[in-house]
């Protein structure tokens, strides 16, 4: 069943690591009435895990990492609500676990999902978060990719754990 021509849903996930990537993957791979685009917002400059990208021709990327952003310091949750259709904050207990079952099921169930309801607005183009942060002089790391969903759920806890053992050379 093809996605509808409705206005895309723009969702901010305030997290990184296994829980944030699990939430982003679930949001991107679940069928919705409208296309879903996710911004994964983190205070770190890069996630501890690996974000996979599966380019599909001219299709727009559906996942964007926005790193080096401290929510409540660089940008407030209220400001995020002005830019996104929903803001997702995983439960602190889910963030502390490495159990895959908790990450996949309970993390989504316990996440605080705050939907914002707006009339049609100019932000139907990609959210203006990067422009807002640039105007404030915040140095932001941004990456986008993952244009198509994956066929099976990823064990993000294992990916994050194994990525910590990979040396990084500059």
From TrEMBL:
It comes from the Bacteria. This is Ferredoxin--NADP+ reductase. It comes from Corynebacterium pollutisoli.
């Amino acid at each position: 069943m093809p996605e509808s021509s409705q206005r895309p849903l723009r969702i901010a996930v305030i997290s990184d690591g296994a829980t944030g990537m699990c939430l982003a993957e679930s949001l991107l791979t679940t069928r919705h009435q409208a296309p879903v685009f996710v911004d994964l917002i983190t205070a770190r400059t890069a996630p501890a895990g690996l974000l996979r990208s599966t380019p599909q021709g001219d299709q727009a990327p559906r996942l964007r990492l926005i790193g080096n952003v401290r929510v409540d310091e660089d940008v407030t949750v209220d400001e995020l609500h002005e830019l996104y259709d929903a803001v997702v904050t995983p439960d602190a207990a889910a963030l502390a676990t490495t159990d895959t079952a908790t990450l996949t099921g309970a993390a989504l169930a316990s996440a605080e999902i705050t939907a914002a309801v707006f009339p049609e607005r100019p932000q139907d183009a990609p959210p203006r978060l990067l422009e807002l942060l640039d105007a404030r002089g915040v140095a932001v790391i941004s990456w986008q990719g993952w244009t198509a969903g994956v066929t099976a759920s990823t064990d993000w806890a294992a990916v994050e754990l194994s990525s910590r053992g990979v040396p990084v050379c500059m």
